[in-house]
Amino acid sequence: MTQFNRKNPASGTLDSGAALAILENRTREAQDVLARRSDAGEDVLHYLAAHGAPATRAAVAANVGAGSATNRLLADDSDAEVRAELAAKIARLLPGLSREENAHVFTLTVETLERLAHDATASVRAVLAEEIKRLTCVPPDIIKRLARDAQALVAAPILEYSPLLSDADLIEIIACAQTNEVLAAVARRHPVSEDVSAAIVKTLDIPAVAALLVNPDARIRKQTLDHIALEAEDVSAWHLPLTLRADLSARAIRRIASFVGASLIEQLAARHDLSDTTRQHLSRELRARLAEQGAAQSAGTRPAELIAAAKAAGRLDSVFLEQAAQGGNRELVTLTLAELSGVEEAKVRRILAAGNAKPVVALIWHAHLAMRSAFKIQTYVMRLPAHELLPARGGINFPLSKEEMRWHLNYFGIAV
Q1: Comparing C-alpha atoms, which of 53, 139, 43 is closest to residue 99?
Q2: According to the model, what pLDDT value does residue 163 have?
């Protein structure tokens, strides 16, 4: 407790200012204690919500003993942290709330929810969305409002998890979506219907379609998969997840085999549902791809010589690295990465051998290359399974923070 000068040096009596300070301090301490007690009584908590300091009001907002009128009052509080505490608590109260038992309490609680759903601060709406995303007892209008929120951090949890959104709701939101985070959230739902999948694919949004392809509970019509296969040649993020889909048509399989590398053709050929004609087609494609890789390697002789020639010609860049990755040439990728990043060859080998996408992403960032290069290395060189791939955020951005990437580099002894 803060110590106060209780006496006036001149008179030896208690100074009035010090006395008020003591009173104020003890009053604040008492309020803070009461604000956290669920048995303090609704009237006391309501008084503290109306007259307490911000920290006291936040404690009341988090207190399950506060009445519905107090919660409604705090929904209009001037402090965003108070409203965020209330948003986290109100969701916990909903499942046990009965309209029949107390209509007035139910009405006030719904009003509180609506006010929080309209909150001017996105972080408050985001807390509310995160807390109610799986609930079935929330009024549908509130769920739909949050699902259409302009801020992805608010809309995404609702779009990914809420059972209250119909296919018609989702298709309408997809048609109006302004950010790919929103589309990807819908694509990650469990399940995703054929109609919703078709609407996502129609957007040709790269992260969203990639998320849809790796979602085992996404039902996708063969015609829709055929459409993805037609568009996928220049979208490396779709190659591996598309190859791993169990519901591909023979037409889609042949189309995919026409542009993916040898390793993914081998994945396709390992399927058990292939006709003899399709299997023979894949065999021809695989032989052709292996022949192309062999010719490319022999034409440039050793990887070190290829790199030296490219460097002399000013072509040792991300394009060179990505071509080496797509060809599955691990040695050429290793030496190129070492050259472009300035990292010792042995450390690059350790990173590629670790079987973890994050250090590779960090190394590509350290080399000032595009995230696209990291994804191709994960896909064609490391051959990571679909659920371990780390795609770009927003189609082009690195998915990790700078602090996290520095951590992974330091782990491998690379100073940043």
Answers
A1: 139
A2: 96
